[in-house]
Every structure is written in C-alpha cells, then in structure tokens.
Amino acid sequence: MDFTLPRNTIFYELERTIKLYRKLSQDHIDQTGYDVSVNQLILLIQIVKNPKLTQVELSEVIFKDFASIARMVDLLVKKDFLKRTENPKDRRKKDLIPTPKGIKMVNELVPVINNYRALALKGIDPDEVAKTLKLLETLADNCITNFKD
Amino acid sequence: MDFTLPRNTIFYELERTIKLYRKLSQDHIDQTGYDVSVNQLILLIQIVKNPKLTQVELSEVIFKDFASIARMVDLLVKKDFLKRTENPKDRRKKDLIPTPKGIKMVNELVPVINNYRALALKGIDPDEVAKTLKLLETLADNCITNFKD
DNA sequence: TGTAATTATATGATATATCAATTATATTTA
DNA sequence: TAAATATAATTGATATATCATATAATTACA
Fold first, then answer.
1. Chain A interface, mutation test: which of B4, B7, B12, B18, most A Cβ atoms within 10 Å?
2. Measured at the alpha carbon of residue A19, what is the angle toward residues A16 and A21, in degrees to the nearest 5?
3. Distance in angstroms (rounded) separating the CA atoms of residues A78 and A100
4. Calpha distance A2→A4 (Å, rounded)
C-alpha cells in the first residue's frame, strides 16, 4: 500500500499548524480573564466594525456556515456581549447590537490579537508569508474546481 | 481600532484552505459510496499499517486528542470497520483489529486519497511546497514557544 | 510490599462544524 | 394579485474538537 504518512504531507502540516495557532490564540485570550472563544471574539469584532451586516454576510466574512454564526450569536447574547433584535424593515433579519460590555471587551482584546499574531509570525520573512499566501490560494482554488458535486 | 480583517491574514487563509481541502477530501470519499469520514479513514489506515499502536500513540500520529481517537474508534467499530478487544498483556489497552470490511475499504480508498491530494497540489511547484512546509513549521514552533500556560 | 505516580481508555460538558429541514418573511413573476 | 421562488435565521442530527474527570491497570519507589 503506497500511502504517505500524514505527518509528511503539507496537508497534515496545515492541520497541525492551524491547530497550534488556535491554541495559542485561545490561550492568550484566556489569560485576559475574559470568558469568550476566539471565534466568538472574531465574530463580535466584525459586528462592531460593521453593525449592518446580516448573519449570512457575516458567515462569508469569517468563512463559516451560517448555522455556526447563529449559534455563536446565541452564545454572545447569553454572555451579554451582544443584543439581537428584530429588524423593523425586514423582519426576517435580526439586528446585532454589541453591548457596552461587548464593546469594552473588543477594545481590550484587539491589541491582544495583534500581539499573538505577531508572536506567531516572529522571525518569518514577510516575502515568504506572501508566497505562502499565494500557494494557499492556489491550493484552495484547486479544491474548489475539483469538487465532484 | 486597528485590526486587520481576517481575510487579509495568513491565518484566515490557512483556515479557509484547510476547510476547502477537507471538503474536497470528504467529497471524493463520499463519491465512492463508502460511509466513512475522512478522519475515520485516516485513522483506520494508520491502524492497518501498524496494528500495534495504542490509541495514545495513534493520537500523536494523526495529531488529535486521544479523546477524539476514542470516539472515532467507537464509530469505526459501530460501522464494522474495526474490532476492539482487550489486550491480554496489558488490560488497560485495547487491541484494534481492522475487519475484512475495513481492510477492503482501506485498499480501495488509499488510491482515492492519493488522487485528490494530487488534484489539490496541481500546478504548484514542489519547491514552493517545501518552502511552505518550512514556514508552517516555524509558525507552529512559534506557537508552541509562546503558550502562556 | 504497599502506596504513589503514571498510563490507557472512556466519558461528560461544551464549542464548533456541516448538512438538511423548518419557519417566517420578502420578492419575483406569470 | 396569487403563486412560486428566494432569503434570513433557527434548529435537529451528527461528527469532531478540547478539557476535565473518572476508572482501571500497571509501574515505580520508599
């Protein structure tokens, strides 16, 4: 059987790296004492930056299923970082309004994110990052064009 | 607030690429008619290749939590791709024995995996892949050395 | 040798992911 | 305008992930 061990493929290394990066991110967020997941935080930041976006649009911005967005919104609402009210003009839509508590958290945590992003890229040549970005985009395009359904 | 949109960072592109690659993988597996997830399949392949590995060792090979392994083993057993029996020498351990059905599937699906891996990398210079691998390893190392706990 | 520490696996809680189906509302179009 | 279609959000089912804890068995060591 001719099969390359996962750990010798770029696919494995992608999975491994992103997993470690997620851990780094959550770790630094946790250290601040805030009870929020990285994904919840990233979603909330997008809402703060652009309160007009619908959940469907948000799902495109952060590249997640809209069902996931609905559940993350639920959690942000439960934690009082966000309010969800009916949009008066289009009652299918919900207006997502960050609470003062949510805005305060975003303001405090954006520098934390910028910090761990920099830590993750420490010692890496920006030109190499740009090349990697290009490669990843090609890989992603290849995936899209080769779906069978 | 100075915050780079997710989609302009390498971190976002990593998440996006790996998500599209997972979809490509599952799509090609599904097309074969087999009822198995990519992760279950990758795990089963490792077991076929090395039936002596414990679940803890398997979790290192495919870089997943051992709790995840236990649950994936459960599912493989339920689907009759795998048998789990007590190890007579160390009764904490479980021997994981692929069933004939499991072995047949692995033999049929390994070429499918090799095929979609090649599709994903089509048109990409192997030297660039090697460079990207190095960058990802550095990024992963940076994450590991910057955990706060 | 008996107790402590370690190891292997399993499981509960929670978060996230996808897909499919549902509900409600808006929009299109025949 | 009524019926068909599209859109926005929610929810259920299932898979996976992590973390913490539990259980059982083995190994280390005082």
1. B18
2. 110
3. 14
4. 7
Transcribe A107-133 into DSSP letters: HHHHHHHHHHHHHHTTT--HHHHHHHH
The HSE-up count of residue B103 (CA atoms within 13 Å, CB side) is 10
Read off the pLDDT of residues A48-106 as tens digits, 9 standing for 90 and up.
999 999 999 999 999 999 999 999 999 999 999 999 999 999 999 999 999 999 999 99
- Contact assignment for B143 to A9 by CB distance below 8 Å: no
Cβ distance of B139 and A120 shorter than 8 Å: yes
- In which band, very low, low, confident or very high, does the pLDDT at A9 lie, cut at 50, 70 and 90? confident
> How big is chain B by its Cα radius of gyration, in Å?
18
Exposed/middle/buried for A113, CB within 10 Å: 0-12, 13-18, 19+?
buried
Cα–Cα distance for residue pair B86/B49, rounded to 1 Å: 20
What is the distance between the alpha carbons of residues B110 and B117, in angstroms, rounded to a whole number?
Answer: 11
Chain B residues lying within 8 Å of A136, measured CB to CB: 10, 13-14, 16-17, 132
H-type alpha helices, chain B:
10-31, 38-49, 55-61, 66-78, 100-120, 126-145
Q: Which bases of chain C are under 7 A from a protein CB atom? A: 7-13, 15-21, 24-27
Provide the token pair at A96. Answer: 């997502």
Minimum-distance CB partner of B6 among A20, A42, A124: A42
The candidate with the shortest Cα–Cα distance to A148, out of B17, B108, B31, B111, is B31
Flag residues of chain B having pLDDT under 70: 1-7, 148-149
> CA of A27 vs C1' of D30, distance in Å?
39
Shortest Cα–Cα distance, B103 to chain A (Å): 11
The encoded tokens of residue A1 equal: 């059987």
